[in-house]
Design goal:
Shape: globular
Strand order of the largest sheet: 7-8-9-10-12-11
Largest sheet: 6 strands, mixed
Helix content: 25-40%
């Protein structure tokens, strides 16, 4: 078993694994390359099988049972390089031979295939946990004073805590990335690494992880750039496709759809679906997703943005419809990243709300298994005015006690409750 590295920074998912690994015989930790899956998983196992290592991959292809028979627990790192391993683990869980437990880490979802319709579902045998880039509190080792789980529980307690983070520091965190191996680098090296990360997606991950070759790499990069410009909006895919043209060839609709599907399978595109509740009278809600890349730093880099450009209100090279500034959209994406990590730890889901006419929009709806709702808006500001909470107030009037709490996430210095009961929470103070 590998010795624990002193530089390891604890992650929110650690507490989930502490609770679940063992009672659940096999867990797949899924997420984009570089989010820290291997570093987190290897601390819990006795045997590590690295399937991105050619000799170990060759042995696994020759005998799919061989990697499973190491001293338990067993980690199958980058299992998608040998897709039959998934079914081998499912059978091992059913037969308890070998007994496991197993951790699987994967940075891509291989296509289903063969005669087994459950292939790669693992239902009832392999449980999945999504791992995203580091949240703000994980990056800076902050001590949050407001718990998302408590907000969703409806306690509506008095909020306390103060943050010294400035708008400039939030901007730097957006650009610094939540990928552990990227954010630790100084400025220029970080930009080079981000560019290399994007290039690797196009040149290597498509063929190596998905078995698909990109016929026009420049076209895919332009499409990714256009998607980045649509961060935190519900811009249509047609508008994104048109924005990718830049006076050059336009990707066909089928090509653009294939790009999006492939990038979702690589966990690079991370859209936030529209909320469609089934147990209330809300009508005319849109299903259109909000667009997010897995890390807002990727979006900023694709658009060539620097801290100075963002702070001076530069909208970026591609003009797509959005409310507010590009910096505001990227801050919302950073907040969404953090909220999704905390919500998963609370066994809750995150979506957004938008009526078809666009009259009411709420950035995030966190919903627990009982249907209780935490409504969250995001504002790139240190202050909150009455007009900023009008959609939250509308939702409380519509759903009553189903709305356990409502809050505005800000860049401000203090956590508190307004006289109308709506919470105001600096992002740096929000935790699981």
């Amino acid at each position: 078993m590998l010795a624990r590295m002193s530089a390891y920074r604890p992650r929110v998912i650690d507490a989930e694994l502490d609770e679940l690994f063992g009672p659940l015989p096999a867990i797949a930790i899924e997420g984009a390359k570089g989010v820290g899956k291997t570093a987190t998983a290897e601390r819990r196992v006795a045997t590590i099988v690295r399937l991105d290592d050619p000799p170990q991959q060759e042995l696994a292809r020759a005998d799919v049972q061989l990697p499973l028979r190491g001293d338990p627990p067993v980690l199958l790192d980058e299992w998608q390089r040998v897709p039959p391993l998934w079914d081998a683990v499912r059978r091992a869980v059913d037969d308890r031979d070998p007994p496991g437990p197993f951790l699987l880490t994967g940075s891509a979802v291989p296509p289903s295939g063969g005669s087994d319709p459950e292939r790669h579902s693992g239902a009832g045998r392999i449980d999945a946990l999504r791992m995203r880039p580091m949240t703000l509190i994980e990056r800076l080792d902050l001590a949050p004073t407001v718990s998302l789980r408590d907000l969703l529980g409806g306690a509506r307690t008095e909020l306390t805590g103060s943050s010294s983070l400035t708008l400039t520091e939030y901007t730097e965190e957006i650009l610094s990335s939540g990928f552990p191996g990227i954010r630790a680098l100084p400025g220029r090296a970080r930009r080079v690494r981000l560019d290399g990360y994007i290039t690797r997606i196009i040149d290597r991950d498509f063929p190596n992880e998905l078995g698909e070759k990109v016929r026009q790499p420049d076209l895919l990069r332009r499409w990714m750039r256009a998607y980045a410009a649509a961060t935190a909006t519900t811009t249509t895919m047609d508008k994104i496709r048109d924005a990718a043209t830049a006076g050059q060839s336009t990707p066909a609709k089928t090509t653009a759809l294939a790009y999006r599907t492939a990038l979702e399978r690589l966990f690079i595109v991370d859209p936030l679906d529209g909320w469609l509740p089934t147990n209330n009278h809300l009508k005319r809600l849109t299903q259109a997703p909000k667009h997010h890349l897995v890390d807002p730093a990727l979006a900023a880099h694709l658009l060539g943005m620097t801290a100075d450009k963002l702070l001076t209100g530069d909208g970026g090279p591609l003009a797509l419809p959005r409310d507010g500034t590009l910096l505001g959209s990227l801050f919302e994406s950073l907040a969404a990243l953090s909220v999704r990590v905390f919500a998963q730890a609370a066994d809750a889901t995150v979506r957004h709300l938008r009526t078809q006419e666009g009259r009411q929009e709420i950035d995030m709806i966190v919903e627990d298994a009982s249907g209780g709702v935490l409504a969250l808006e995001v504002k790139l500001s240190a202050t909150v005015e009455d007009r900023d909470v009008r959609h939250l107030s509308w939702l409380r009037a519509q759903l009553g006690e189903q709305v356990r709490d409502a809050a505005i996430i800000t860049t401000g210095p203090q956590a508190y409750r307004r006289s109308d009961g709506i919470a105001v929470i600096p992002l740096a103070l929000l935790g699981p």
